[in-house]
Design goal:
The protein is α+β, with helices and mostly antiparallel strands. Strands 4-3-2-1-5 form a 5-stranded antiparallel β-sheet. The N and C termini lie far apart (174 Å).
């Protein structure tokens, strides 16, 4: 009996590791298949979810265009909607991997709070972007001047606004700085006042100059006839009488009218012999030498 017990014990010692290995292999196959299927399903969910979210974003954008939603609102909201859809897809991916989705959302919230505290300036720009969209001090396509920069608004983004200058430069302005500083918008009104400053001589007849320049405004097709036209003396300068010529033109025609009016005014002034004095300085040299004391004086 003792020898039989020894044999049984020896068999248990030899067989036991193989049983443990078999159990471990079975567990590994079971869990591995579960984990593998979870990874595959999560990957498929990610790919399909991103594809569907992209299609939905494009569909929403098309609907906005069909409903004539302002371009400024579209360029601002579409990136936010895209991010939200992708976050929803990631939540489903996490749940497919067997993790707690609510915990993932809470973790994202905590990360968002931490990032927000670290990037307070960016949050300020984001809030300013929302205020710009709501109160509309300008929109895409408007010509604005702010903080020494001027140009046409190309896009209003989540954190900044992009404008294109007349020189072909792209200027990116943070929304926070832009909203909290004065903004000159030249595109709100249909018409814009055009000012020309001209200097004439004190010897010229102002009434004749007034008539001639007013005739230039009357003949210009780009000048609006329903609004006042002004030709008046602005100031008396040191070497000229400065005259201001004012009229109203459409925003779209401003620079065309600007160049044409300056050309017409110059040609008209030349034709009517109206002088445009240039600033100059006269130097007078007085010789007070007593000729009687010169050494070469002939006293004979």
């Amino acid at each position: 009996m003792q020898e039989q017990d020894k044999v049984d014990s020896l068999q248990d010692v030899i067989v036991s590791p193989f049983k443990d290995l078999e159990n471990f292999t079975q567990w590994l196959l079971t869990k591995g298949s579960e984990v593998g299927w979870g990874l595959v399903s999560a990957l498929l969910t990610l790919l399909i979810g991103f594809w569907v979210s992209g299609k939905l974003v494009k569909l929403i954008e098309k609907r906005m265009i069909a409903r004539n939603v302002d371009l400024s609102i579209r360029t601002f909201l579409i990136p936010i909607i895209n991010i939200l859809f992708k976050m929803i897809v990631l939540t489903f991916v996490v749940s497919r991997l067997g993790f707690n989705a609510s915990g993932f959302v809470a973790a994202l919230g905590g990360m968002g709070l931490a990032v927000g505290l670290a990037l307070q300036g960016s949050l300020s720009n984001f809030a300013a972007g929302i205020l710009i969209i709501l109160f509309k001090p300008f929109k895409v396509g408007d010509y604005i001047v702010s903080q020494g920069n001027e140009g046409t608004v190309e896009s209003i983004n989540i954190l900044n606004t992009v404008i294109a200058t007349g020189k072909g430069q792209i200027v990116t302005l943070p929304n926070g700085n832009l909203f909290n500083n004065p903004i000159i918008n030249f595109s709100v009104k249909e018409y814009r006042r055009l000012d020309l400053n001209i200097g004439i001589s004190y010897d010229d007849d102002f009434e004749n100059v007034h008539k001639v320049l007013l005739d230039v405004l009357e003949k210009n097709d780009l000048v609006d006839d329903t609004q006042p036209k002004t030709v008046e003396i602005l100031e008396f300068a040191s070497s000229s009488v400065n005259i201001v010529v004012r009229c109203y033109v459409k925003n779209a025609d401003y620079w065309t009218a600007y160049w044409k009016l300056y050309r017409d005014v110059k040609h008209t002034i030349d034709e009517n012999k109206i002088s445009m004095p240039n600033p100059h300085t006269e130097m007078v040299i007085k010789n007070e030498t007593d000729l009687s004391n010169t050494p070469f004086d002939n006293k004979d």
